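Hello,

Our lab assistant flagged a job as stuck in the queue for most of the afternoon. It eventually completed. Since we weren't sure the result was trustworthy after the delay, we are filing this so someone can double-check. Below is the sequence as submitted and the structure that was eventually returned. Let us know if re-running is recommended.
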Amino acid sequence: MIRHLYDWTMRQAERKNAVWVLAAVSFIESSVFPIPPDILLIPIVLANRERAFVIALICTIASVVGGWLGYAIGYFLFESIGRQVFTFYHVMDTYLRLQDAFHEWGVWLIIIKGMTPIPFKLLTIASGAFHFSLLWFTIASVISRSVRFFLVAGLLWKFGERVRTFIEKWLTLLTTAFVLLLVAGFLAIKLL
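-- returned structure --
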């Protein structure tokens, strides 16, 4: 089943509109969607290695702009929407502990945690809810998201066929590892 899904994803990654689907997922992931854009970024770059850095740029821009939506949710709609997102991820207690750290270390929290499997939407919504500077939020988001997406794109551009062969050989193990990393990101937020 995983192999079938992988093959289907690779076929979709070769389509003309794949980059724009990636942009949409990257945008919405920064505010409410639970799936990280890396799931699409990797096959799209593998299918279009010559455009790896353009794809990473589109993913970064969409993520930062989507982050502004998450920021707005936190700033204007925390009680009606933001709180539900934190409750959905079972991290409301972390949100309450995060406020003091955010005012002191906000830029660094966004930069460091924005590069990890921790759901970015939690940082964007918290930034708005804590009324963190939108300028510094944007700068930190650009840094963290570009490092993350350009690193992935750069590695795939450089080692593309070897990476693709490795992924195809170890697909089940890598899928399991990815799911474990995703769960670890949620647990890390919980334990913050």
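-- support follow-up --
The delay was a queue issue, not a problem with the job. The result is valid. Residues 2-191 form one domain. The helical segments are 2-13, 18-29, 38-47, 52-88, 92-113, 120-129, 134-169, 171-191.
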